[in-house]
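Shipment paperwork, digital attachment
Item: protein structure file
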Amino acid sequence: MSALTNITSWLSHVSETCFTACYILVLVLEVSRLFFRIAVRHALILLVTSAGLFAHIVWFCLSTRTPETTPLASWYGWCMLIALAIAFVYLLVRIRYPDKSVGLFLLPLVLALIATALIFLRNQEPFVTDAILSFWSILHLSALLIGSIAASLGFVAGIMYLVQAFRLKRKLPPRQGLLLPSLERLQWYNYVLLTTSTGLLAIGLLAGIIRKASLLAISESDISWDPMVVISSGILLLWLIITGLFEYFYKPARQGRKVAYLTVTSFLILGVVMALVFTTQHAVDLNKSSSASQVSSQEGNV
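Attachment content:
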């Protein structure tokens, strides 16, 4: 019992610094492949990445001890969860294809998401509570989360495709430590991730619209549609519809650089929209609206 208590006490000190430092060290090891060879580098990368993922998961478990601090309770936890998912994908790819240099593209995105959360989103007010955990809100959050992960991975696949196509077109000699998947495989990754992210983000946006409309219909508070959220969400939804139609009717859009450009552009538009949403009280207002509707419902029953 004493040993378990000591372990629990030790794990309670795990913070964002622990897994961030691990990911930075792994990126340094990946970059070193471009300059020199180390026999034990692959084993070190797997060990440090596993340690980072363990610390990341422990941190999330610690953050779920209260309802107000669930991983999806704020945009801060949202970014951290996407970073965790991408880091996990990196570990799987690294185990399956140890000779590929995907870490040079995936790890900077992981660190960028963590940095965004730590610098800009750490002190934002939580927005997910029991008051808004309805079917539509869960669908809204889940679809947007998984769609954002797919869009992020598609962005990386698109960048790798463009880099590989550029090198082959210019007939650049192979560089030590820089080996990417074939264009055919990267093209397939781009197509699958673009289709997945487009569908999930569209579902998430529509679920959010239905949820917001239902709350406003039964709420007597002065909460209304946020113009910034409406405009940004409308732009994203319009882009998703155009992308889906363009991909469906124009077959070449599923191939080559066109699909890579689409995945990269979709991620950039998603990033701009999320940045705009971060500056609003969208989710917080949603929470207040739901709380107000519960209060009015209780008063009506009385």
